[in-house]
TrEMBL record, chain A:
It comes from the Bacteria. Residues 11-87 form the MlaB-like STAS domain. InterPro entries: MlaB-like_STAS, STAS_dom_sf. It holds the Pfam family STAS_2. This is STAS domain-containing protein. The lineage of its organism: Bacteria, Pseudomonadati, Pseudomonadota, Alphaproteobacteria, Hyphomicrobiales. It comes from Shinella kummerowiae.
Automatic annotation (TrEMBL), chain B:
GO terms for molecular function: ATP binding; phosphorelay sensor kinase activity. This is Chemotaxis protein CheA. Keywords: ATP-binding, Chemotaxis, Kinase, Nucleotide-binding, Phosphoprotein, Transferase, Two-component regulatory system. InterPro entries: Bact_Chemotaxis_CheA (IPR051315), CheA-like_dim (IPR004105), CheA-like_homodim_sf (IPR037006), CheW-like_dom_sf (IPR036061), CheW-lke_dom (IPR002545), HATPase_C_sf (IPR036890), HATPase_dom (IPR003594), His_kinase_dom (IPR005467). Involved in the transmission of sensory signals from the chemoreceptors to the flagellar motors. CheA is autophosphorylated; it can transfer its phosphate group to either CheB or CheY. Signal peptide: none annotated. It comes from the Bacteria. The keyword Manganese does not apply. Residues 125-146 are annotated as: Disordered. Residues 408-610 form the Histidine kinase domain. The modification Phosphohistidine is found at H46. The lineage of its organism: Bacteria, Pseudomonadati, Pseudomonadota, Alphaproteobacteria, Hyphomicrobiales. Residues 128-146 have a biased composition (Low complexity). Its EC number is 2.7.13.3.
Length: 99, 761
């Protein structure tokens, strides 16, 4: 938040995004609000519904703020879990990893 | 309940379904054309397939699927269930059983055999059109990689299979006629509450478990999700609309939510897969589950595709889909409305079905030891009740009427309890007999003989332990009967017999024992050959003078085999002696009677262990004996004029102009040395295993009573001529007469001889 001119931030997600991780993730995201954000989900091995909610709420907030919110890298388990629970993040994927 | 237990239950159900399948197919084979029989057969295969799908048993699923496809053709009258068709089907049932066993015990299956059968089944399903031109059809390999949802993976090609003509389908008929493919699709509304997560449950895992049930598509409703700053990260915002096509039905789906259902809003209901595929096929959108709920459609084209749920949610895809279907949306909508109606009807139907199933076969599994303990206790109760009655009678001969009535009621109750308890352990021999049908088929195939197995009295009940141990000796004997007993078809024809040989397997209750008879109409025992072989093997002296019966019984000697060439099936020389030993180990007897050119009959008589017995309590030489009531035809008071001497020591009694040997029980059992005077006693006309009638002489009849059988072998030792013992009301032990042994002894050989024959033969 030091530079208000949309300095792109990045956030690397923890490998395990389970129920206990939701609050921490929420806090992390809140701290990054207002900036373009690239999320690195390449290390994610497990993701639960609560963290998925937080991420999607983040996407919503960023959209409201008209700031880009993208997933720079995603791990296979992350992608598959999102598909399993019917959460579509295709439009949030960085261009280079879109199929 | 862990996964293994569930799987175990599945396999138990499989066994039942396989039995159902086989008996249904055999009925069809016998010309039964009842649609309900065909349906039962179809259901059996279908259930196995469904269960196997849930456990990812791909081989089983793919085979069951092909089998089911062919059965479906029979069901829809496209395929006539001729003998040839049924032959393939019976073989397929065998392979299905093998696959089930392999899945349970990890054994291997004859793959070439199952592949051949798959081809044959497909050919049948395709009617005249040669197989596998347009329909490469579900190969096991195709199913294997997609372990997650095997059932639907193979389900799809079949629906599009050329072999299937689209069946005109009217929703109006739905109630009366179940659809061709009854694969229910469950639609689930799942809205977790905060507590669900707070208690450590994870919606992702629930969804994963759901996806394992079958083909699933998911729509995640995020409308409730606020922006980041307004959200509580531990609150539940997502909810899901899920549809799962699964054989497990609503119950299977519900079980996934078993531990979470209190912490979520859950709505599950079933709609029909058929309806869905019909609709989608028409719309040429075969891979898209139909929009079950129009509100989903309205939500911006978020019809979830099955492999990549929610992909279509992307605007571009939605636009394309919308364009493609635009003109047809109206139709879809009207169909969907019909769907809703059909769904309501279907769920009512399935509920009714579930009720029926519940009523038909709810079982619990109980440790056998517990049942045994209960049976023993009830036995004691019966004895105790008899003692109580007796002491009341003795102490107060008048007895107040209320005591007498109470006692009578007690007697009835104990009897009922006893019957019910015995029924727990008693099971029909049917499953064993059914296994024999398969044995016969296989051996007939290998030997190139044509054999028909006729079973009778499959519902005869016998103790579970007996049933378990019966299969092996029976299999052996059946093999022998087909391999050695029956002649080749050409030879039979030359002899003027039906080229198709008959093996008859019967079970019946006789004298408180179960008698199992195995008869073939083959060549009978070649006595000359048996005798020669026995001489060659030093079993008998070359000049021994043996009766036909004795020669026949030589085949029970260890190491005896008359087959010229040792085949794979039988004739390793371990045959009949092993059979005899297993039967004896069960406390049974086996005998053979054979007529050259007409076949042989093996008769096994086995005890109904732990059973109760209705017996006639009699006195013989001061001893109390019990004669099983089932063996007694009638009782009579001999008159002097009816008694005739015959030979040195034999006597006959004339009953209604026929002569019947009179057997002095006291003499046979060595209770006394001299023959009793028939006029002083009572004659019990009995029917014995061998079929003949004998008049057993006893001194007096005390009365009829239900007695509890106590094994003499287990508590004392085997006594010739005595089947078991019981405890009477006065606490004394009474012996239960082995009528067959006594009758056999009266035929010339003494009881001792019988024993020695049994030991050596």
């Amino acid at each position: 938040m030091a530079s208000k001119k949309a300095a792109q931030k990045s956030l690397s997600l923890a490998p395990v995004l389970d129920l206990n991780e939701a609050t921490a993730l929420h806090t992390q995201l809140m701290g990054l609000k207002g900036n373009p954000l690239v999320i690195d989900a390449s290390a994610v091995e497990r993701v639960g519904a609560l963290c998925a909610q937080v991420l999607m709420a983040g996407a919503k907030s960023w959209e409201e703020d008209k700031q880009p919110f993208t997933f720079g890298k995603v791990s296979d388990p992350f992608m598959k879990t999102m598909q399993l629970i019917g959460v579509n993040i295709d439009h949030l994927l960085a261009q280079e990893i879109r199929q | 309940m862990d996964m293994n237990e569930i799987k175990e239950i599945f396999f138990q159900e499989c066994e039942e379904q396989l039995a159902e399948l086989e008996s249904g197919l055999l009925k069809l084979n016998d010309g039964d054309r009842d649609p309900e029989t065909v349906n039962a057969v179809f259901r059996a295969v279908h259930s196995i397939k469904g269960g196997a799908g849930a456990f990812g048993l791909d081989d089983l699923v793919s085979f069951a699927h092909v089998f089911e496809t062919t059965l479906d053709c029979v069901r829809s009258n496209k395929l006539e269930p001729t003998q040839d068709v049924l032959k393939v089907m019976l073989k397929s049932a065998d392979v299905l059983a093998d696959l089930t066993n392999a899945a349970r015990d990890g054994g291997s299956v004859d793959e070439a055999r199952s592949r051949t059968l798959i081809r044959e089944l497909e050919a049948l399903a395709n009617g005249e059109t040669p197989a596998a031109t347009e329909a490469p059809a579900p190969k096991p390999a195709a199913a294997a990689p997609k372990a997650a949802a095997p059932a639907p993976v193979v389900e799809k090609p079949a629906v599009n299979d050329e072999g299937f003509q689209p069946i005109p389908f009217s929703f109006g008929d739905f109630d009366e006629e179940p659809a061709a493919h009854y694969v229910p699709t469950c639609q689930i509304l799942f809205k977790p509450k905060k507590d669900l997560y707070a208690k450590g449950n994870e919606a992702v895992l629930l969804l994963r478990d759901l996806s394992r049930l079958g083909e699933m598509s998911v729509y995640c409703d995020m409308d409730a999700l606020p922006t980041l700053d307004k959200m509580n990260p531990e609150e539940a915002y997502f909810s899901w609309k899920i549809s799962v096509t699964t054989d497990k039905g609503e119950d299977g789906v519900r079980s996934v939510f078993e531990f979470a259902e209190w912490d979520c809003d859950l709505d599950i209901h079933t709609i029909e897969e058929d309806v869905v595929s019909e609709a989608t096929d028409d719309e040429e959108l075969p891979m898209q589950p139909v929009p079950f709920d129009l509100s989903i459609l309205d939500d911006g084209g978020s019809v979830a595709a099955e492999d990549e749920p929610a992909v279509i949610e992307s605007d571009a895809a939605a636009a394309v889909a919308a364009a493609e279907t635009a003109s047809k949306v109206a139709q879809v909508a009207s169909r969907a409305a019909d769907n809703a109606k059909a769904a309501a009807a279907a769920s009512a139907a399935s509920a009714a079905q579930a009720n029926q199933a519940a009523a038909a076969g709810q079982t619990i599994r109980v440790d056998l030891d517990r049942v045994d303990r209960l049976i023993n206790l009830v036995g004691e109760l019966v004895i105790n009740q008899a003692m109580l009655s007796q002491s009341v009678v003795e102490n107060d001969s008048n007895g107040t009427s209320s005591i007498n009535m109470g006692l009578e009621e007690l007697q009835q109750l104990t009897r009922e309890i006893q019957d019910s308890v015995m029924a727990i352990r008693a099971q029909p021999v049917k499953p064993v007999f059914q296994r024999m049908a398969r044995t016969v088929r296989e051996i007939a195939d290998i030997t190139g003989k044509s054999v028909r197995l006729i079973t009778e009295g499959e519902n005869t009940e016998v103790d579970k332990t007996v049933i378990d141990k019966l299969a092996e000796p029976l299999t052996h004997m059946i093999r022998n009967a087909v391999d050695h007993g029956l002649e080749m078809p050409e030879k039979r024809e030359a002899l003027g017999k039906n080229p198709e040989g008959t093996v008859r397997l019967t079970a019946k209750h006789r004298s408180g024992r179960i008698v199992i008879e195995l008869a073939d109409d083959g060549a009978g025992i070649n006595r000359e050959k048996v005798r020669q072989k026995a001489i060659d093997n030093d079993l008998i002296a070359a000049d021994a003078n043996l009766s036909d019966e004795e020669i026949d019984n030589l085949i029970f000697h260890a190491g005896f085999s008359t087959a010229d060439k040792v085949s794979d099936l039988s004739g390793r020389g371990v045959g009949m002696d092993v059979v005899k030993r297993s039967i004896q180990a069960l406390g049974g007897r086996i005998s053979i009677s054979s007529k050259p050119g007409q076949g042989s009959v093996f008769t096994m008589s086995l005890p109904l262990t732990l059973a109760v017995l209705d017996g006639m309590v009699v006195t013989v030489a001061g001893q109390t004996l019990v004669v099983p009531l089932t063996a007694i035809v009638e009782t009579l008071q001999p008159e002097a004029s009816a008694i005739h001497s015959f030979g040195a020591s034999q006597r006959l009694i004339s009953i209604r102009n026929s002569f019947c040997p009179l057997v002095d029980v006291g003499r046979i059992l060595n209770f006394r040395n001299i023959q009793a005077n028939p006029m002083d006693g009572v004659a019990l006309l009995v029917e014995s295993e061998g079929g003949g009638q004998r008049a057993l002489m006893v001194d007096a009849i005390q009365g009829q009573r239900q007695v509890v059988i106590k094994s003499l072998e287990a508590n004392y030792t085997h006594v010739p001529g005595i089947a078991a013992a019981t405890i009477l009301g006065d606490g004394r032990v009474a012996l239960i007469l082995d009528v067959d042994a006594v009758v056999a002894a009266s035929r010339g050989h003494s009881l001792r001889q019988d024993i020695s024959l049994a030991a050596t033969g």
